[in-house]
Every structure is written in C-alpha cells, then in structure tokens.
C-alpha cells in the first residue's frame, strides 16, 4: 500500500502559492458539514494526525506579509512552518475565510492512541 499524502505526488503550487494533495479526496469530506469541512475522525481512522498553520499566526517575514496584502490573495513565497515533531508533510495550502492556511499530516505514532 502506498503512503497517503506522499510528498512526491503533491502538485506544484499554483501562481498564487496554493496546492491541494490528490489524496485529500471525498473520503475526508465531513458527512454533515460538507466538502468545505474536513472529517478529522477519518484522518484518525486512517492513522493520520493533522494540524493547521494559518498565515496570520505563522512566523512570516515582513516582506512576504507585505506582498500578500499588496496582491490580495497570493502567497507563493510563504513556506508554512510545520508543527513540532517529526514526519509532518503538507496536505494542502489553500485560502480560507481567515486567510491562507496550510494543512499538515503525519502518521500517528504507535502507542499515542488511547
């Protein structure tokens, strides 16, 4: 079985700096809230942990921040800071109501599920 969210299959970021991993498909849509919301329990069931990093709360240089506000939506130079720990990989960089966000995923460490 191939690894979910393999970095080798993450599409290049578009001109605005966004990308969406092809593994982030309909199985992760929240059954009650729809496709705009991720079903976090499905990630857990597949042995994955997920975390978000918002552009607004990330340690972004003033230059990158200024370019974002000047362009209105573009974040091609933003390199989202991964969460603490090993094994995180990008699942998506996308726009939200709260501005750009990055979704990080990794396998749940054995023994961390109770």
How does this model look, in words?
With 114 residues, the protein is of the alpha+beta class. The protein has one domain. It is built from two helices and six strands, in the order E-E-E-H-E-H-E-E. A hairpin with a 3-residue loop joins strand 2 and strand 3. The protein is globular and about 40 Å long. The model has no long low-confidence stretch (mean pLDDT 85).
Which key phrases capture this entry?
alpha+beta, two-stranded antiparallel sheet, 14% helix, 29% strand
Give a quick summary of the entry:
The protein has 114 residues and is of the alpha+beta class. The chain has two helices and six strands. Strand 2 (29-30) and strand 3 form a beta hairpin.
Shape: globular
Number of strands: 6
Helix content: 10-25%
In the sheet with the most strands, the strands line up as 1-5-6-4
- Domains (count): 1
- Low-pLDDT runs of 5+ residues are none
Order of helices and strands: EEEHEHEE
Question: Over all CA atoms, what is the radius of gyration?
Answer: 15 Å
Query: What's the average pLDDT?
Result: 85
Q: How far do the termini sit from each other?
A: 25 Å
Oligomeric composition of the shown chains:
single chain
Largest sheet: 4 strands, antiparallel
Tally of helical runs: 2
Strand percentage lies at 25-35%
What structural category do the secondary elements indicate?
alpha+beta
